[in-house]
Amino acid sequence: MSMTDPISDFLARIRNAIIGRKVVVTVPASNIKVKLAEILKAEGYIRSFELKPDDRQGILEVELKYDRVNKCAIEGMKRISRPGQRSYAKAAEVPKVRNGLGIAVVTTSQGLMTDREARKRTLGGEIICSVW
User: Fold this and answer.
1) What is the sign, positive or negative, of the torsion defined by CA atoms of 79, 122, 88, 99?
2) 104: β partners
3) What is the full DSSP assignment across 64-82?
4) Which of 11, 3, 2 lies closest to 81 in space, CA to CA?
5) Cβ-count burial of 59 within 10 angstroms (0-12 exposed, 13-18 middle, 19+ buried)?
6) What percent of the chain has pLDDT over 90?
7) Are residues 85 and 56 in the same domain?
8) How far apart are the C-alpha atoms of 68 and 66, rounded to whole Å?
9) How far apart are CA 69 and CA 88, in angstroms?
């Protein structure tokens, strides 16, 4: 079975793991998912991630980050640009998530980056998702 939107699947698996209070999430790996995991780790939303080889495309293992009262660092995630409805923004129009408390992940001509970094480099692109 082919998957139409692997990024939505990645976000949904993380969302479901948070609801189920899981510590580790495994997803089929791809370059964009690895880059998305790098951004989430750099921004402090996940503890770590590891790319494990298998006989197909590899498995991305993401370790979620919880505090002492078992509250996840990720409060919410939303897919913005979907295969049926793409969402693009110019550099000046890149949205702020929760007045700067969250991040929007933007794919630009220079790769995947956060909204803050895209505004700093004055780059626009496709708004992939928002995380807060």
Assistant:
1) positive
2) 130
3) E-B-TTS-BS---EEE-SB
4) 11
5) middle
6) 97
7) no
8) 7
9) 38
Q: Answer yes or no: are the C-beta atoms of 27 and 13 closer than 8 Å.
A: yes
Residue 57: which domain range? 6-64
In a 3-state reduction of DSSP, which class is residue 63? strand
- Is 20 in a helix, a strand, or coil? coil
Structural domains of the chain, count: 2
Half-sphere exposure of 131 (CA within 13 A, CB side): 26
> Residue 114 maps to which CATH number?
3.30.1490.10
| 62 close to 46: Cβ distance less than 8 angstroms | yes
- Please state the pTM of the whole predicted model: 0.93
Residues of the chain with pLDDT under 50: 1
Distance CA 47, CA 104 (A): 19
